[in-house]
Amino acid sequence: MSWFEVVPVALVTAAWLVGPGAALSYAIGLRGLSAWGMAPTLSMLIVPVTAVLADVLGLRWSPLVVLAATAVVVTLAVIASLLLRRIAPPRRTDPRRVLAAAALGLVPAIAIGWYVLVEGMGQPDQLSQTYDAIFHYSALAHILDSGNASSMEMGTLGNVATPTTFYPAGWHGLTSLVVLSTGTPIAVAANLVAGAIAMLVWPLSCMLLVRQLVGRSTAAMAVTGVVSVAFTAFPWGLLGFGVLWSNLLGLGLAPAGVAMVLAATSLAREDVIGRRRAMALAPLVVVACAFAHPNTVFSLIVVALFPIATSVLRWAVRLHRAGRTGRAVAGVVAAVAAFLGAWAYVAVAPMFAEVRSHYWPPFETPARAVGEALLAAPNGKPALWALSLVAVIGAVVAWRLKTSRWLVAAFAGTVFLYVVAAAINRPGTHFITGYWYNDSYRLAAMLPLTTVPLAVLGITRLADRLGALLAKVPAPAATVPPGIVVAGADQGADPVRPPLWRTPTVLSLVVLLALAPLTKVFYVGANVGTVAGSYAIEPVPQNTTLVDRTEKEFLPELETKLPEDALVANNPWDGSTLMLAEVGRRALFPHANIPWSADQTYLAANLDEAGRDPEVCRAAERLGVRHLLMANRTFWPHDARNKDYPGLRVSTSDPGFELLAQKGTVKLYRLAACDAGKAVTTR
Membrane spanning segments where (predicted)? Predict the structure, then answer.
């Protein structure tokens, strides 16, 4: 399968990510950039909530269910908008030139993102060779098999013998819609959804945030898209670490959430959302982010805290100047107390206990961690010198603007969190970083949330300075024919517009083009390497390979030999789980680290005794297991959890197992010892 062949699937993916939310955006009165910037967030509200309700109502998950739910939600939103038209009228869209600049600025962002995707993944159906991918592929397979995409039951992947638990399945629900809509394999859908988040959702979201920061600036809109896909820590870092696809989706929505906060706090410049509408939508944005990944809510809180604090302080200053100092002080104290009280509760809440318990040893000094954050090079990534310098210029600009000082403070806050996780991490700091698993990679991914708008401010300021220098160059005198009166020559007339090549937009594009060689074309090489790290298959299977070339070549045989309803015994550490997910067959062990039933645990330890232990066949019968897949052990052999499945390795000479297919050391068996009426030799 070639990348050209999957272009239609990519377009369907983009439609699912943006389409439902765009319809809802226009229904609630958003227009232009605000509608499209909020569209992915509202799509991620509709899709996972529909999945939960479909499960409650007993409806099988399908594109038709989502389209019907979208139609109902949009209709209700239109009615509500008409009833509340006087309170919250539809927002006026930006001038066409601003929208055109945003649209044109999105084109190179998508082109750069597509290049990173193609070069980093290699093939569109390449499987991610990572621990987290075991769960994600299994979750997709579970949705397609069960017809249930509810986040309320996703934590155990349909393992009926264990209690269901919550897992944010927004990414999985949407990716399953791509599979159901196009018939494409799971791996292709997963890769295209992840790529579309990086090169479409994230740039759109960043454009809305920048638009709220700078107003109707065609220059800022023209460069934001490219800047947003240049940083390594996000979005590409989460495509190369984990892989953290759910986190990728959540943080991709975060800039739009911050843009909403700016509207609610009246800090937006020439606001395109509306204060009342933003306050009404805020809870829905939180729900959407939580269904993408809960720690996105905390990331959003961290950044949003600074504009909210700015708004509270400005309110207090106004009261003080009006002679109501007591009320101002009381308000500030109440706000601080509410924040600290909420933080104190969350810091000990049992629901976050398991997340807070994760420990990653510090790996560098605080000074080095600060330097990495300032150079956009966290976790040992290559330093992005040119882009970081531009962001520093942007920070100076934001500080001088006063109303944007919160952005500099928010950047400092995200740097602080990264430094704590990377250089200090200890039990006493987990109440600060525990909501991100105390993981420096997840916290590093927050940095571009503030550095992207700072870099855009830096580029536009450099363009302004370039324009000022060019203005000092004398223009050639125009020759006016005799008898012709020059309009505007009298005092008080409108100033003559500068030529096109001296407009802020063109000059900003010039600065952006100048950055191209300085950044080696916006760091595509570094970003390709980051993505490739989680997809590469070693020439000789190494400790980081889940599905090697032999196993991938075995997939057609696996699909042919296994019945569609087969439940296959497997060791989740040898890549078999991904193989079964890719061919649409259920794995007895769909992940490497979720609770198992007593029968599953017994088979994991004793399946190889099927011809000698009657209890093995009884357990297999209760579960419905008839086959065993043995793949190559090429992933994390050092991990002690590999030893939890000693009964899943058998020899071809064992009479209790019939060999159905083999390629190298990859083998598919049938449990012949458990055939009806088969005599079993007791121990």
Answer: 6-28, 35-58, 64-85, 97-117, 186-210, 217-238, 244-265, 277-293, 299-317, 329-353, 382-399, 406-424, 444-463, 506-526
